[in-house]
Each structure stands twice: as structure tokens, then as C-alpha cells.
Design a protein that fits this description.
alpha+beta; six-stranded mixed beta sheet; 10 helices; 34% strand; binds adenosine-5'-diphosphate; binds magnesium ion
Length: 375
Amino acid sequence: MARIELENITKKYKETVAIDHLSLDIKDNEFFVLFGPAGAGKTTTLKTIAGIEFPQAGLVKIGGEIVNLIEPMHRNVSMVFENYALYPHLSVYDNIAFPMRSKLHRKDEQYIQEAVERVVKMMKIDGLYDRKPSQLSNGQRQRVAIGRCLVREPAVFLMDEPLAHLDAKLRHFMRGELKEMQSAFNTTTIYVTHDFMEAMSLADRIAVMNKGTIEQLGTALQMYYTPINELVARLFGEPEINLFPAELFLDDGTVKLHALGQRIPLVPEADAAQVLKKQHGNELDLGIRGIDIAFSLTPQDEAWIKGTVFAFEPIGNKVIMTVLINGTQIRIAAVNNTKADLDQRVYLKFNMKQVLYFNRTTQGFITRSDMKKYT
Ligand code: ADP
Ligand code: MG
């Protein structure tokens, strides 16, 4: 159990700045997710905590103690790598037991047996004790690798995209399993992923990383409902959030928005309109997720915006429909049995309660309706 602090860490590889003045304070026992695109610096951050990489500047603290000069094996962290490697000549049992037989962390065989049994039960791989890695499926191998990480009782678990190489179905299943195990961990965990669903479902808190720095730090719901900028908004949600320019104007003191070449103005919810009034003259971007857009074949009132069907993709439990409105593609998530033909005329209605307003120049978040509910 340990709190982890990073203070102003910079790590460069020659000219590449992998981590750029990064600070983080991870609570004891927290399940903390580092989330972001490839190259963001996530793996480097984990390696810096593990002690496999050394930053040029900044402090790494584990349990309040500065560990910059402490060797990895003395830091009491356990790490699962993205490209985990099991020892091919060792059985499942011996692979998992391995860390407890190292010189430094050696335990007696009675202790090892109990620990291995606890972990294989947790990972649901009991019954495979004697198999070699080559006799296991991908999913089973991954479980053994995670098991090997969990078998020690370190101060910190570091997991680098442990599910990334599994197929979608297994990944989904394992996510559920990890979620279930989480409460049993009782150990500070830093979990790296570039899958937003994994991030949202597992995390106590998420740090969105990009280009070696943190874009936003908060809960899954804060990321989703109040993303700090357009980049973060894009990273959360499937299909990706719709973002398009809008002009803001005052009509008799009421804030209205022109967007998508429509003559019909969009009217923000009252509290959002209050904030937007001060932005008068600024150009905005509107963000709205596909699930917050209603669809109809007939306009039901003047709030419905006319478009044509551009693409239609059934994806299991829903249909992703791309609708062209004056040259802008808007993606909506419709219910499964929705039927529409290409080029067919359709009407969309935005749920203005869920619209996110961004500054078009800085791409920074301005407001949304019901801000209080989400902060
Ligand atoms: P992520 O895990 O978020 O994909 P990384 O931490 O692996 O990102 O990499 C961050 C940046 O540092 C990238 O630009 C990557 O190319 C670079 N980098 C990482 N490791 C090395 C290395 N050993 N040598 C040189 N550049 C590296
Ligand atoms: Mg990585």
C-alpha cells in the first residue's frame, strides 16, 4: 500500500521529450488509469515509477519516500508489460511462482503454494498448473502474466495495457474480471490503456495523457461530461463526438447559435446560455455525441434539422448512421431496428442539454448545461 507522487518529471530520449514536467499524486489504494494515444508517454511514466527508466529531472516518491536512486528490485513494485513474456520452459505454476523464488523476495514453498492458489483462483486458471505456455490460449497466457504480477504483495501494481493484445470479446470479459478483482487488490494500481471503455469502467480516477503531459485529471464522468478540451472529448465515446463550428448571436437578449448552415437557430439551455452570453462575438465549436441526437423520418417541429443519409453501419446492438447536413457529416447512434436508405431525407434533433461548447481558437471547454451536476 502506498501513495505515489511524481513531481515535475521530465524524461527525454535524445531530442524526444517522452514526459514533460509531469506531476501526479496517486492516493494509497487508488486504481488510477493513465489513458491516452500511442506515444503519449504512458509506458515511460510507468517505467519511471518502476525504476527501469531514470528521469533527467523531477522526483519520484513511493510511500512518501524519494526513490529516484533506488534500484527497481528494491522499489517493491510489480509490473505487467504490454508484451508480457512467460518463461516457455516453465509450467503455469512455476511461472506464477517465479517472483517469489527470486533471491530478493524468496518465500518458502508452503507460502508460495498458498499464494499461487489464491491467484489462480482469482484469475480462473486453476486446473492449468502443469501446462507450458505453448499449451495455453492467448487469453490464458495473459491471465498467467497478470497472475504473476499479482502474486507478490507489492506496494504498487503497474499494468501496461495488459489486455491490448486480446481479441475484443476476451478483452471485454477480462475487463469485467479485473473490475471484480479490483476490490480484492487492496494495492495502489496504475493501469495504462488506450481503450476509453477500459479506462472508464476500471478507474477511480483517470489522467488523460498526451505528448508527455496531462490534459485532464478526474473521474470517468468528468472526462465524459465535461472534457477540458476537444481532444479529450474526442477520446471518450464511440462513435467519436461530433464537433462542428457554430456562430453565436444574441436575439432580443436570447443566445442563439447558427450551425450546419441552418436557418433554424439552436437555443442553448438557460444556464449554458448565461455563460455563453459573455462569449458574444467569439466563434464556438459545438460538440454533441451520437447518442444525444434523435432521428426521425418526418420533422416533428421546427427544432428538427434536415439532412440526408450518407452511411449506415449496423454494429451489433445499435446502428451508426452518418447524416450529411449542408456538407457536414454528423454521426448518430440509433437503435438496432432503425431502417433508412442512402440519400434518404431524415431529420435530427439535438438534445441541447448534452451539447458541449468549446472555444474554436483554443479548443478549450467553455460550458455545458447543468454544469453543477457534473463538477
Ligand atoms: P505510450 O506508452 O503512451 O505509447 P511511450 O512512453 O512508449 O508512449 O513513448 C513516449 C515517447 O517516447 C514516444 O515518442 C516514443 O517514441 C519515445 N520513446 C519511448 N521509449 C523510447 C526509447 N527507449 N528510445 C527512444 N525513444 C523512446
Ligand atoms: Mg505504451
